[in-house]
Amino acid sequence: MARRLQCLDTRRPHNGDGFGVGYYTDPKLGPEPCIFISTIPAWNCINLERLASKTMSSLIFAHVRATTDGTLVHGGTDNEWAFALFVDSMEKIGHDPSADVADGGFDHSVLCTAMLRTIERINLLIADIPERYRAASKLDTHSLHNFAVTDGFSVVCTRYVSSRTDEAASLYFS
Fold first, then answer.
1. Phi (first) and psi of residue 3, to 5 degrees
2. What is the average per-residue pLDDT within 146-171?
3. Which of 7, 26, 73, 169 is most exposed by smallest CB count within 10 Å?
4. How far apart (Å, rounded) are the C-alpha atoms in residues 114 and 91?
């Protein structure tokens, strides 16, 4: 838990407006991951600290939402749309995203291929927006995403920025 404060990027202010943690336990407890989510910042969550002190797993996956402009996010987010594209990309390359990895469902190379296809599709969708709509609504079409997916055994992550001038968001691994 002490590392959580060290990972904050101090070059610009952050609004940590929620987080999530997922991990797999002993298969005897079932194939589904344990999931803990909260709408408060991770560094202020005593329940996370209590849970972390009693959690053992070979893979723990966490996400801290840290918006830089102070806006709140209310469902229907770009993250949810990007994940839907990712799941669809997995299906289009011939893999069932709900398949059990232990039964030969897919591996990290499939996750990586699906991730790259997802980014390609996002770029194509943005490119298809007519210029008249971009100009009329002053639409910002830059994409800044950290993508991270897991099959329960490995993690595939990417920092993605479509702009030539914007800086990528922070991404930490430990």
1. -70, -25
2. 78
3. 26
4. 9
The residues, any chain, with a CB within 8 Å of residue 131's CB and separated by 6 or more, are none
37 beta partners? 20
Is the pLDDT confidence value at 140 over 80?
no
The two structure tokens encoding residue 128: 């298809």
Of 116, 80, 110, residue with least CA distance to 97: 110
pLDDT tens digits for range 107-126: 788 899 999 999 999 889 88
What is the number of other CB atoms lying within 10 angstroms of the CB of residue 94? 8
Q: Which two tokens stand for residue 69?
A: 């402009």
Q: Give the residue-averaged pLDDT of 100-109.
A: 72
| Three-point CA angle 55, 61, 63, nearest 5° | 115
Residue type, 71: T
Q: Radius of gyration of the chain from Cα atoms?
A: 18
How is residue 174 written in tokens?
């430990």
pLDDT, position 144: 75
- Pair 149, 155: CB distance under 8 Å: yes
Reference 77, options 98, 61, 63, 91; nearest CA is: 63
